[in-house]
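[09:14] KT: can someone run the structure on this one? pasting the chain below
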Amino acid sequence: MAASNSKKAPAKSDPNSFGAKVRLLFAGNNGYTLRKPMRQWWWLFMAPVTIAFCIGFVWPFIQGIYLSFCEFRALDDVKPIGVGNYIKVFNDKGFLHSFGLTALFAVTSLVIINILAFAVALALTSSMKGSNIFRTVFFMPNLIGGVVLGYIWTMIFDGILVNTPVNSIVNDPNWGFWGLIILVCWQQIGYMMIIYIAGLNAIPGDLYEAARIDGATGWQILWNVIIPNVMPSITICMFLSLTNGFKLFDQNLALTNGLPKEIADGAVVSQSELLALNIVHTFKNTPGVAQAKGVLFFILVAALGLAQLGITRKREVQQ
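[09:31] RB: done, structure tokens below
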């Protein structure tokens, strides 16, 4: 009886078994066995990505800056001319018009996209029936290419305007501008909505409960609980909306191609042409000037993006 009641000694595992060797490999010295070769051969793992990055981005970027100070038709016929291309850029009325139009477009689309995306995300996270179906429907336009969307909306707008004095979206710059706003909002609201939903779902439920116990109204909860805690999502969405607004190209090309054109002070100005499309059109005739525009375009987008990130990140709440 004593023998039957005594506890059995645990079976010892074989130190030479495969499982024991795997456990030793991962547990020994807190994983030092695995980290040692990675520390020794890190450059071998980084080399392919670094080389690809330098070939695909760094070298073309440096070469582009150099070519912005040159006059050329082909890369084997380059003539340095100093800052002449930049002087031509600031005297280009078409470029200045495109800059102003792009700034107005970026700010307008940023405000509309983020307000509507946040409102939709707030509605779809409030125990709404069929929310998963609505999420899919709102996100689907983002899966369609910009050129395809541009041609689709061209047919829609032309069908609306066919019996009006405007007749076509390419005949009126106001319709061209607001047509681009509608197209981009329809495409990007669903994408931003997903980011806002992720931010809303990350807010602890205790904060809502504490606010209700303190007698907070719906608007007070929105402004004092939801928005401060969803600021990381607002930062991301505002950054994407701002940079996408300035970089917009394919939708502009397919929807209006910069039309209509007007003559201002002896220069032909495309009334609905944004910056990216203006640079491409310039490259056909004067590649050096287009390269200078591209450098200024990069500086502008990078500066605005970094400034926006710095401003909105200061308002983020640490949870």
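[09:33] KT: thanks! The radius of gyration is 29 Å.
[09:34] RB: yep, looked fine to me
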